[in-house]
Specification:
This protein has 192 residues and is α+β, with helices and mostly antiparallel strands. It contains 5 helices and 11 strands.
Length: 192
């Protein structure tokens, strides 16, 4: 996948709070239309830069850049959405990592804290019996417990849930943004 289509640009609201990530192509569109301003981050110095000025900035060593007819244009690592002040809320995505985090990496039948590779998802009501992939039907369980339970209900397998699984509350999107590309400039805003 080309750099233009990877989410390597952090989007801040006008209060400089992280709210989203964008691809360079999307960021360039926002900058060109004036709905965002790029941040030129150099060490501890942070300075907002308009699109016209951004086009003239030199590409520094270690910066990502795209080739255009005019020459190389640096890809911003952080932009500010100038007309947006809210921090949206969102429920975490339903996936194994978030179920594990919700359940504190504990087997929901034994209470044991599980090490890497010791746990997996368990459908409280098995899929073979109509159970759905949902926050209130998925729990984190020790592999051996899940294997023993099989396609039975917990009570049929002699198991009892420590607590009923529930959907997590909506949280500010700021806590859901991960720096999976390891962009150093993002850490200035994600660690707040």
């Amino acid at each position: 996948m080309s750099l233009l289509h990877q989410s390597v640009v952090l989007v801040l609201n006008r209060n400089w709070q992280p709210i989203n990530t964008r691809t360079p192509a999307e960021a360039f569109c926002q900058l060109a239309t004036g709905s965002a301003t790029a941040l030129d981050v150099s060490g501890d110095a942070i300075r907002p830069v308009t699109w016209a000025e951004w086009l003239t900035l030199p590409v520094r060593a270690g910066d990502h850049a795209v080739q255009t007819i005019r020459g190389a244009v640096r890809v911003p690592s952080v932009i500010v959405a100038v007309n947006f002040s809210r921090v949206p809320k969102r429920r975490p995505t339903l996936n194994a990592r978030n179920i594990r985090e919700r359940d504190g990496n504990r087997c929901q039948y034994t209470g044991r804290v599980l090490g890497p590779g010791e746990g997996n998802l368990d459908h409280v009501v098995p899929r073979s019996r109509g159970g759905r992939d949902s926050w209130d039907n998925l729990v984190w369980a020790a592999r051996e417990v899940n294997t023993r339970k099989g396609n039975r209900l917990p009570q049929e397998a002699g198991l009892r849930l420590l607590r009923a699984p529930v959907a997590p509350k909506e949280v500010p999107v700021t806590v859901l943004i991960r720096n999976s590309h390891g962009v150093p400039e993002w850490e200035l805003f994600l660690s707040q």
